[in-house]
Fold this sequence. Notes:
binds NADP nicotinamide-adenine-dinucleotide phosphate, 7-stranded parallel sheet, 42% helix, Rossmann fold, alpha/beta, disordered N terminus, 288 residues
Amino acid sequence: MATPRKKVSSKQIKTNQNDSSKTNRPGHGHDEHIHAEHNQTERGVAVVTGGAGSIGAVICGALAREGMRVVVGYNRSAEKAKALAASLPGGDHAAFAAPVTDSAGLAAMAAEISRRYGVCDVLVNCAGVTRFVPHGDLDALDDGLIENILSTNVRGPFATVRALRPLLEKSKQPGGAVIINISSIAALTAMGSNVIYCASKAAVDNMTKSLGRALAPKIRVVSIAPGVVNNDFIRSMDPQWLKEQVERTPLKRLAASEEVASAVIAAIKHFTFTTGAIIPVDGGRPLS
Ligand SMILES: NC(=O)c1ccc[n+]([C@@H]2O[C@H](COP(=O)([O-])OP(=O)(O)OC[C@H]3O[C@@H](n4cnc5c(N)ncnc54)[C@H](OP(=O)(O)O)[C@@H]3O)[C@@H](O)[C@H]2O)c1
């Protein structure tokens, strides 16, 4: 993402230098923006919660390759997050604690981001938890697990948006800042690791709509809803269950983390007139 502020090398920024650079910001002169973006760019700042996780790390890589400065948000995986931030292309990345169930911790993160960067252009809410519990086994889905899922997957993204809103509103990116909520196909199909996980992702998609309305026009909000993603956790599942997932998916395979990351980049960079929307990355799974 590019900010029309100061001149940097053309290598530093890749986004917004193609057709998307013609994006017009509501209430602003079209030409003024086109002209400002060319050769007068600064690298945007992206924050990814759960940034050291399986999908989060791939999203961090994609954002860095797009020329952004990336804050890898972590909860328990501090060392992994620091190593990832140090390995990303482009420089000036950071790893900060982003404990999404701890609002004081999120306020501290926002203060660190404010001191170091002064702005947040993209927030990717990727942190999430779940555990497999058969949908019919209501007793196994105990209150502790329910509260952990809801506080992390639902209150978490809301609290992170609340903490970062002032910095998101400072974005000078054409079209303003973008929030990406990593939801799930489970929100739509009610098929997923357990009943409350599915409900939590439906709540995330619902929040995407409310926040898309409430934060416009300065901030766009988009859900990316992946089907089952082919990562270590999923590969450790019952092979029969995995085979079934593939068979029931019209495109006959699972999603790759890279495809989720590509959708995140597309929503930021190309879907510039999209807000309050849910974008599936699911191989057509709900069709069957
Ligand atoms: N895997 C799939 O098939 C799939 C499909 C659809 C959607 N999703 C969604 O994609 C997202 C990432 O999933 P994943 O498969 O990459 O899982 P993962 O590898 O287990 O990553 C989960 C991440 O969430 C973070 N996290 C957990 N509790 C947190 C808390 N209280 N505060 C801050 N961060 C916390 C973890 O951070 P630490 O390691 O630092 O603790 C970790 O980085 C989740 O929202 C998930 O629901 C996954």
